[in-house]
Design goal:
By secondary structure, the chain is mainly α. Helices cover 56% and strands 7% of the residues. It has five helices and two strands.
């Protein structure tokens, strides 16, 4: 399954960059902590795949681990982002988007 994932990401990168666009992976989840399976297994694997394939990655995992879920999400109602959480995410992603501002696909 891991090899299939890596192969599919490689194909996705080739297709996107072949069109003139830029692939950037973003790991964004309110789940954090060493006991969360996605943090222990999934995130490190995705980080390795991106590094190996030369894909830019923005990993919010360590950033959000420092934040209170009560501030960043609509907890205890649900885990969707709060206004403060959405603003924080936008602030972190703004320089990434600006860096690639002139990059666009030639495919319509």
């Amino acid at each position: 399954m891991k090899q299939r994932y890596k192969d599919d990401v490689k194909k996705l990168k080739e297709q996107i960059e072949g069109s003139g666009a830029k692939l950037v992976f973003v790991i964004l989840t309110p789940e954090s902590g060493k006991d969360v399976a996605s943090v222990r297994y999934g995130t490190p694997f995705i980080v390795d795949v991106c590094r190996e394939l030369g894909i830019e990655l923005v990993d919010f995992t360590p950033l959000l681990a420092k934040k209170s879920p009560k501030e960043m999400t609509q907890w205890p109602r649900d885990g969707h982002w709060s206004k403060a959480g959405a603003a924080y995410i936008a602030d972190v992603l703004e320089p990434v988007i600006k860096k690639h501002y002139g990059v666009k696909s030639t495919v319509t």
